[in-house]
Design brief:
- This protein is an alpha+beta fold.
- It has one domain (about 5-94): Alpha-Beta Plaits (2-Layer Sandwich), CATH 3.30.70.100.
- It is built from 3 helices and 4 strands.
- It has helices spanning about 15-30, 60-65, 70-85, and strands spanning about 5-10, 35-45, 50-55, 90-94.
- The protein has a 4-stranded antiparallel beta sheet.
- It is globular and about 40 Å long.
């Protein structure tokens, strides 16, 4: 079963550039992960401090393997410190 992951983050204006750099690191690692199909990063129009990453995975197992990847966790930890809060994830079946 294919899954889509919705990852919501809120960032203060002074941290947008730093977040962008970290998201690019994550994206480059994601491209080599088994089961990764596609991803996109969106900026919310009516709330400039919010962004949404939507990624598509071949299966929930593939997503969970990525979620538990040590390199991903290290970068995600940097992101959460930068944001001052934990990133929100929602998993949907296609």
């Amino acid at each position: 079963m294919t899954v889509k992951i919705f990852i919501r983050r809120k960032v203060s204006p002074e941290n947008v550039l730093a977040l962008t750099v970290l998201l690019k690191k994550l994206r480059s690692l994601t491209l080599n992960q088994s089961g990764y199909i596609y991803g996109e990063t969106l900026k919310r129009v009516d709330s400039k401090d919010e962004c949404m990453v939507i990624s598509t995975w071949r299966s929930l197992d593939d997503w969970n393997a990525w979620l538990n990847n040590a390199e991903r966790k290290a970068i995600q930890s940097e992101i959460d410190v930068l944001l001052g809060q934990q990133t929100e994830y929602a998993v949907y079946e296609v």
